[in-house]
Amino acid sequence: MGGQPMFILSEDTERTRGDDAQSSNISAGKAVSESVRTTLGPRGMDKMLVSDDGDVVITNDGATILDEMDIEHPAAQMLVEVAETQEEEVGDGTTTASILAGELLSQAESLLEEDVHPTTIVEGYHEAAQIAQSTIDDAVIATDPDDDQLLQVAASSMTGKGTGDLAAEDLARTVVDAVSQVSTEDGVDRSAITVHTQVGATSSATELVEGVIIDEERLSEEMPRSVEDAQIAIVEDDLEIKEANVDAEYQVSNVDQLNAAIEAETGQLQEYAEALAATNADVVFVDGDIDDRLTADLVGHGLLVFEDVDSDDIESIRAATGASRVGSVDAIEDEDLGSAENVSVEKYGEEELIFVEGGAASKAVTVFARGSTDHVVDELERSLTDALDVVTAAVDAGGVVAGAGAIEIEIADRIRDEAAGIEGRKQLAVEAYADAVDVLPRTLAENTGMDPIDALVDLRAEHDSGATAGLISEGQTGIIADPIDHGVLDPAAVKHEAIESATEASTMIVRIDDVIASN
């Protein structure tokens, strides 16, 4: 080759290797973690996120914060994915997972400076994570939580989040009632619970509706506002004059021919109304358009009709009422009709909402969340959704454990005990994992207004004495007390997922020693 260099990458490629790559990735991950750290716990702070368009989001939900942030660094994006995975799997604990992942990276950075090999760190972290998972299983208080425990889980999830003028404990009853409505022997049908928000009242007006709520308006204000014992039809078609399949041109040479054409169209539209009336349906949901000339006939038959209904709403109505989706009015049979105890149209400001209650096919329920402003209802919706998810997780996926940092103290203590029996430098990584877990109760203490070091020492002392101890928010600060006695419970599944996702993300980042970026 004559000693000439060989280029295998394009000239505009940027490459970072070795310590620089590891340092850059770890710093990016830590920065993401720090961005949500102050939101943790019952006295966590909110973040205001302003987009380029001026849209404002105010929240302390970790997943929402990271989703709204414009993050470009690939390693930082991996921590965003941690939050997304946590949200998708169990619905809560996104801040916990992000903070833990960031602290695991910080501890790994110190180990790398001490010449501990990345592979050794990864092996140690995975071994420590297994100990953590086993500790969570051993700490489960109840695998089949009762209603009181579920209320505590829901309230713990919402405490410190945006719930408007209503206390978390009051909203918790609505959440548990919703989950109870859709619980079966096979578990909780989480898809049967929806949250619908409406601006115009305080959050104390939030209620549970045994049915579905659709944001649509009647085809005509002359149609009935309420139908009892409703028979429901779903039509997936346009109720309009059908166009010919071939290109044809019709010439009209006199008024009689024009009148005949209009009468033919009117007759075709009347057939739609008569066919619908003949089905014995009281309420009709159409996903297509309806010719304006048909409205009077539908009103004359006493039908309550909605047009251009969203496909997702159509599916919700189908699932709740048992109605079949049919392709044309002529195809409707008796067995295609669904039923509901009541279909009503309620007006809120300038908007109309449809309440389909007591559907025959399912136990579908809707949490009808109210709030005085858009920002309030948006944050209330996030809080309710998280609470519904964690209560579902508590019922379906492993029960509940003590919250308020108690389980984290137990995990860190168990890992340190087990580390004594691990040989070589891997022991350093296992111990570092325990130190990383300590960041969670330490952050809770800091956000609660306590001295984080003193609080951590007191927590460990209580734990060593055999007591269950956590950080309980009280007044302007916090106290060390038994979280079970204070009703602070978390789903075991949330803790399991946080350990797993944080460990996977941090170990993946630690293993990277070469970043090749194409411009």
What does this structure look like?
This protein is α+β, with helices and mostly antiparallel strands and 519 residues long. It is built from 16 helices and 20 strands. It has helices spanning 18-37, 62-68, 74-90, 94-113, 118-138, 147-158, 168-181, 255-278, 295-300, 311-321, 374-396, 406-419, 426-437, 439-448, 452-464, 492-510, and strands at residues 13-17, 47-50, 56-59, 183-184, 187-188, 193-199, 207-209, 211-214, 226-235, 283-286, 304-306, 325-326, 338-348, 351-359, 365-371, 400-402, 470-474, 477-481, 489-491, 514-518. Strands 8, 9, 10, 11, 12, 13 and 14 form a 7-stranded mixed sheet that branches. A 3-stranded mixed sheet has the order 6-15-7. Strands 1-20 form a two-stranded antiparallel ribbon. Helix 5 packs across helix 12 (406-419) and helix 14 (439-448) crosses helix 15 (452-464). The longest helix has 24 residues, at 255-278. The protein is elongated and about 95 Å long.
